Amino acid sequence: RAAKKVVRKKLTSGPALPGKLADCTAQDLNRTELFLVEGDSAGGSAKQARDREYQAIMPLKGKILNTWEVSSDEVLAAQEVHDISVAIGIDPDSDDLSQLRYGKICILADADSDGLHIATLLCALFVKHFRALVKHGHVYVALPPLYRIDLGKEVYYALTEEEKEGVLEQLKRKKGKPNVQRFKGLG
């Protein structure tokens, strides 16, 4: 039965998928998710943590091309953009979502300034060249925490320096010394 499922997926998937894509087995758009992650390291961690049935992982090589002022004819010349387009099954500027392979496309970048830049470039790509995906609610941006704060068995997360200071201020009333960890990547 598993062999039939693999063969059926190969026959219906269309063009060859990008090599770094760790695909999922499900095809139900209500369940499938593609996580675009920053680099092979995050890709490896994400692959280990995912549910293979409905979560696909695609590591990206650093910053993608700034596509905001690039025409749709030229945008596919960038390999990373081409690979994203093939993975999701949609051509740039297409309103036809019938070949969409994932119900959710999640941008998951590091919790640092480079990660924010990469997430911004990906948002620009989707807003400018894959507008139908955004319009129909298929694109998501994850916001990883910048800090983890432990006090005993309690764990707190902070997205910003200000939020971290607020948590530490609240914890002054409790016994013990909080342990603050700053995340470098996705955590």
UniProtKB/TrEMBL annotation:
InterPro entries per record: Topo_IIA, Topo_IIA-like_dom_sf, Topo_IIA_B_C, TopoIIA_CS, TopoIV_B_Gneg, TOPRIM_dom
Enzyme Commission number: 5.6.2.2
Cellular component terms per the entry's GO annotation: chromosome
Signal peptide: none
Segments forming domain Toprim: 32-145
Annotated GO MF terms: ATP binding; DNA binding; DNA topoisomerase type II (double strand cut, ATP-hydrolyzing) activity; metal ion binding
SUPFAM superfamilies: Type II DNA topoisomerase
Reaction catalysed by this enzyme: ATP-dependent breakage, passage and rejoining of double-stranded DNA
Superkingdom field: Bacteria
GO biological process: DNA topological change
Keywords of the record: ATP-binding, DNA-binding, Isomerase, Magnesium, Metal-binding, Nucleotide-binding, Topoisomerase
Pfam families in alphabetical order: Toprim (PF01751)
PANTHER family: DNA GYRASE/TOPOISOMERASE SUBUNIT B, DNA TOPOISOMERASE 4 SUBUNIT B
Protein name as annotated: DNA topoisomerase (ATP-hydrolyzing)
Organism the protein comes from: Escherichia coli
Lineage of the organism: Bacteria, Pseudomonadati, Pseudomonadota, Gammaproteobacteria, Enterobacterales
